[in-house]
């Protein structure tokens, strides 16, 4: 569904990403795993076309036959709005503290696809029920909800929008174990119910084991291993992947 090939990113003459190549298969959950500073977030920024101004980028990010790195900015805006939905590590930054959740979830869902308030209420109520989230949250402010609930509100919006690709960048690292589990269940539910393709960025091997079908291991700006989670976990080839897996037990 998205093919990243020979992606290289340089900032101030420093190579941050080096000839990164991988494919995100349609309908699958794919995880990019790597240690802090390895280049995971930069890779995501290249895919969604939100790289800092001082960056030099080479290579291709092919989506629907178009190279997103060379696309007209207006077309990219529309792809970001309709096709790609992104959930970041700290969702509280994504919400305005002084606006009730209902209005904000409307903007993240119905507003993106042009639905009326009536359609929003009907559709969002049934999604909240499905995700075991109380309908009351629509009348509450972000500070009245836990971090885990805010993350799951974002999943509710993804259920609504049904994007072609959901990118979740370190979505569980600020959550405790119970909230992590709830979030993971919602993520898997989205993939299974709607067939949404998911790119999951993480440094948590347990999270990968519980959710992902495919994996790309990134180390110092290069992809050192790709394959199904089953194959990479049972027969790791690169020394870094072996170290990573040994550290799990
Ligand atoms: N705006 C920037 N200017 C210069 N260097 C940057 C910038 N953003 C990131 N970097 C550098 O690029 C490299 C990759 O960063 P990136 O944020 O992609 O890593 P990451 O794998 O996502 O790490 P983490 O897990 O800590 O978020 C790091 O060495 C980082 O210091």
Automatic annotation (TrEMBL):
It is found in: Cell membrane. It comes from Sporosarcina quadrami. Belongs to the ABC transporter superfamily. The keyword ATP-binding applies. Pfam families: ABC_tran. Keywords: ATP-binding, Cell membrane, Membrane, Nucleotide-binding, Transport. The keyword rRNA-binding does not apply. Residues 2-245 form the ABC transporter domain. InterPro entries: AAA+_ATPase, ABC_Ni/Peptide_Import, ABC_transporter-like_ATP-bd, P-loop_NTPase. SUPFAM superfamilies: P-loop containing nucleoside triphosphate hydrolases. CDD domains: ABC_NikE_OppD_transporters. Signal peptide: none annotated. This is ABC transporter ATP-binding protein.
């Amino acid at each position: 569904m998205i093919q990243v090939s020979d992606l290289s990113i340089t900032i101030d003459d420093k190579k941050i990403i080096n000839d990164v190549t991988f494919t995100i298969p349609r309908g699958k959950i794919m995880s990019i795993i790597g240690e802090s500073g390895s280049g995971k977030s930069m890779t995501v920024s290249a895919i969604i076309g939100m790289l800092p101004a001082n960056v030099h980028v080479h290579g291709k990010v092919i989506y629907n036959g178009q190279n997103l790195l060379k696309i007209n900015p207006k077309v990219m805006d529309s792809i970001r709005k309709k096709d790609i939905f992104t959930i970041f590590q700290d969702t509280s930054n994504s919400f305005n503290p002084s606006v009730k959740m209902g209005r904000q979830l409307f903007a993240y869902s119905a507003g993106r696809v042009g639905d009326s308030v009536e359609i929003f209420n009907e559709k969002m109520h049934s999604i909240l029920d499905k995700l075991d989230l109380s309908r009351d949250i629509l009348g509450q402010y972000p500070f009245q909800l836990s971090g885990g609930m805010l993350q799951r509100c974002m999943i509710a919006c993804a259920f609504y929008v049904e994007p072609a690709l959901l990118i979740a960048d370190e979505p569980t690292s600020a959550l405790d174990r119970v909230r992590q589990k709830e979030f993971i269940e919602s993520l898997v539910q989205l993939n299974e119910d709607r067939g949404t393709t998911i790119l999951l960025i993480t440094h948590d091997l347990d999270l990968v084991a519980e959710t992902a079908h495919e994996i790309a291991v990134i180390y110092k700006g290069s992809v050192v291993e790709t394959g199904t989670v089953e194959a990479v976990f049972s027969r790791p080839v690169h020394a870094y992947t072996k170290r990573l897996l040994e550290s799990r037990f």
